[in-house]
From TrEMBL:
Residues 1-90 form the Helitron helicase-like domain. This is Helitron helicase-like domain-containing protein. Pfam families: Helitron_like_N.
Amino acid sequence: MDVIALVQRFGKPDMFITMTYNPTWPEIKEHLWTTDETQNRPDLISRVFRAKVEELKTDISKRNIFGKIVAFMYTIEFQKRGLSHAHFLIILDNEYKLLTSEAYDGITSAELPETYLDKKLRSLVLKHIMHGPCGNLNPTNSCMKKNDLCKFNYPKSFAEQITKGLDSYPIYKRRNTREVVKVWEQYLDNSWVVPYNSFLLGKFNCHMNVKVFSDIKVVRYLYKYICKGHDKIAFYIHDNDTNKEIDEIKEYQFTRWVSPPEAAWRLFGFSISEMYPSIYHLQLHLRGQQFISFKGNTDINTIVNNPMIKKTMLTEFFQMNRSNKDAIKLNLLYKEFPKHFVWSTTDKTWTRRQ
């Protein structure tokens, strides 16, 4: 609900970025002992990945590499095999909204870069950005569904220019240059390129998927996707003694999968998610059903007869709209009220922001 509040206030997200940890980052390799392996150092993995996430956050929110932003959020996700992901959602200021195909092309690309233009970028695209392969080239790839189709719909169709698709995603420019490259023993073309941003890919040297959105319909799915949480399972364990009575309720367990990098991440106290701006929670209740708190040894008559205990954000919002000239003049909705007034938890009153 906090995330949806951002959309309600600032509009649909403009960009979605997924950054995946790279086990061959130099910052990791140079701190390993000769006999060490990356997967045996979840502490190192977590520290380096967090530093990368913080740098990406700074690029987006302070250096404004995509223009001025009004809101963003990110969540950290851990795969079962230990590869860490960071999912960023970005809402741009109205002045920097992506409204034209040229603006889309300036942010993201879904084509192989020309060798003569940027040899390093091309090598990074081949290393980190090519999808699969799947389909007939590799029917057992993890993205293949039961109907033998890729769940990400690769290979994509060619397109001479970026256009708005039937869903909330644009159809990215993927020209049929007839150029193919050998990746994982298969020959692939532009139809297999995952959308990326040249600057971020070159700087972070890892899988960096950058998507833009053309419609608000994607919001519900997208926020559900990045906030889905852990993989969970319910199970119980019993032996093969068929004569033994099994108490399924007693043996029932509800667990979650925690990989070593996630365990280290949480032990270090790193943030699993962050959002800007922060969300201010407003109290809601029915008439006469306020939430109250009191000490256990307080006399019940003192509690009931205390006029302050009946005051809440909601009751005082109504009171302000009856008696306060500024509130009456502004004619604000409840959700808009904190933008102009401050709630005092001590006095239980709203006062005008200075």
